[in-house]
Amino acid sequence: MPVRDEQDLVLAVAVARRHYEQNQAKTEIAEALGISRFKVARLLDLAHEAGVVRIEIVEPVADGGLARDLEQAFDLRCCSVVPMPSSAPEVRSEVGRAAARLLGRTLQPGDVLGLPWSRSVYDMVDALETLPQVPIVQLSGALAGVREDSSAVDLVRRAGRIAGGGRQVFFAPLVMPDAAAAQAVRRDPAVRDTLAAADQVTVAMVGVGAWEAGQSTIHDAVDAECRERVREVGVVGESVGACFDGRGRLVSTCLSDRLIALSPDQLRAIDTVIAVSYGQGKVEALRAAMTGDLVNGLVTTQDTAQALLA
């Protein structure tokens, strides 16, 4: 570092101490040190750029400690509880914002982010304002009938524009008519390579659905016979198509070979999997997913958190 830069940095530390620790105004500091107030402002900027001053925003604990209690009860790495009921009119946008904030705090340089399609992930991406510069990998195909601007590809593209670290996507449905059709789609190079890249994902944001009508987009997308066959083998919920029972154990079903998504084993291998899910109908599925270590992070609502802890 040049001598002049070293002198400026020493002065920047002195200015920062006066301003942030002693609450002196910039004009007061300028007069005391015999420099202009514009020089004071430049030195404060230098203090930020050099890491001398670090600003941390700490959100107030508005959830009554529910997030902390959930982390302890289910051995979670991270948790955010939105202090409102699941029935509140603005709940989707508020949960989406909470998920976006939690993701921003969780991602670190060197991470690889994985995003599947789900309503809750859509709400989170819609609320994103900033992300570290990490690559993003699409984890599942799209569901039929979903708006084009909220498809799996679009979610990854939008998040990728914010992160600026590159993205890997493919065009394919999430649920195929049968195993043979799914196998043919998986041979497509873009699908094959992107799903293989899921092995590199370190952080994933996912939805968790209960195996009931209206509680899982995949449940609602398949025929009645398939729904019943999945239920008969003890499935209580799914995440990115990975079905699990009441103890959180992965269950192979008639649906497994029809999905275009990362495998259940790939999902389990991801270091940090954060579920964005809420509502009384999903409590059993969420509890099972956390108990079985399928997910180790959670964004949910106050009433759902209370039910999980009951």
From TrEMBL:
SUPFAM superfamilies annotated for this entry?
Answer: NagB/RpiA/CoA transferase-like
> GO: which molecular function terms?
carbohydrate binding; DNA binding
Q: This protein's superkingdom? A: Bacteria
**Signal peptide position in this chain?**
none
Domain Sugar-binding residues, every copy: 66-310
Which InterPro entries does this chain map to?
NagB/RpiA_transferase-like, SorC_transcr_regulators, Sugar-bd_dom_put, WH-like_DNA-bd_sf
Which UniProt key words apply to this protein? DNA-binding, Transcription, Transcription regulation
The reply to whether Membrane figures as a keyword in the UniProt entry is no
Q: Member of which family?
A: Belongs to the SorC transcriptional regulatory family.
Please identify the protein, giving its name as recorded. Putative transcriptional regulator
Q: Which organism is it from?
A: Serinicoccus hydrothermalis
